[in-house]
Amino acid sequence: MTAAASSDAELISAHAAGDPHAFSELVKRHRDRMWAVALRTLRDPDEAADALQEAFISAFRAAAGFRAESQVTTWLHRIVVNACLDRLRRRQTRPTVPLPEAGPGEPVAPRDAMSERETRLVVQAALNELPEEQRAPIVLVDVEGYSVAETARLLGIAEGTVKSRCARGRAKLAKVLGHLRNQSASANVPGDGVKQQRQWEER
């Protein structure tokens, strides 16, 4: 069985057994998603890159102790999130670097694509305004799709704490992003806006 065809757990086992290529395959397989988590949490590409590198180094060293009590992706997420939170605590007074809107030489995007990118930037800016204790669970639950229980395990906090922090964060986001929700509601049957808002806030 080739490394590329192996499961995550098999790659971890192969790495622990001395396979020099197994961990590289694991990194290649999950790097993009872990990068997205780090970037959304830290807001700074340089900080996110450093946190991701630290996380993968930690995972490389700790892989031999992996006991398959959770999915490998959950284990990696926990390490990445912890690395990000450590950096957040260390940079409390440091100014943040805005995410670039476009790369050098990027061609002009069609209007729909530009609108989608503007929306993503607005949402990212709103997330940036949240305290780190609220931003991390919201990124995991609402952006990455983890359950409350999984998020609690990743962050090492109680499920009730995850729910309360998400609720407070969503209430703040609702104030900032209400105009986006209203725009989408206008395309539906009149009267659905209030229902959609309530469902979104109770999610």
Strand-helix topology:
Elements: H1 8-16, H2 22-42, H3 45-62, H4 72-90, H5 111-128, H6 132-143, H7 148-155, H8 159-185, H9 192-202
Helix pairs in contact: 1-2, 2-3, 2-4, 3-4, 4-7, 5-8, 6-7, 6-8, 7-8, 8-9
The Cα radius of gyration reads 19 Å
Task: Estimate the global geometry from the Cα principal axes.
Answer: globular
Name the poorly predicted regions.
93-111, 184-203
| Assembly annotation | single chain
> CATH homologous superfamily of the largest domain, by name?
RNA polymerase sigma factor, region 2, helix turn helix motif
Q: Give the class from helix and strand content and strand pairing.
A: mainly alpha
Secondary-structure element order, as H and E?
Answer: HHHHHHHHH
CATH class of the largest domain: Mainly Alpha
Number of domains: 2
The largest sheet, given as strand count, sense and whether it forms a barrel, is: none
Report the strand count.
Answer: 0
Describe the structure.
Helix content is 70%, strand content 0%. It is mostly helical and 203 residues long. The protein folds into 2 domains: 1-93, RNA polymerase sigma factor, region 2, helix turn helix motif (Rna Polymerase Sigma Factor, Chain: A); 130-179, Winged helix-like DNA-binding domain superfamily/Winged helix DNA-binding domain (Arc Repressor Mutant, subunit A), CATH 1.10.10. The termini are far apart. Residues 93-111 and 184-203 have low confidence and may be disordered.
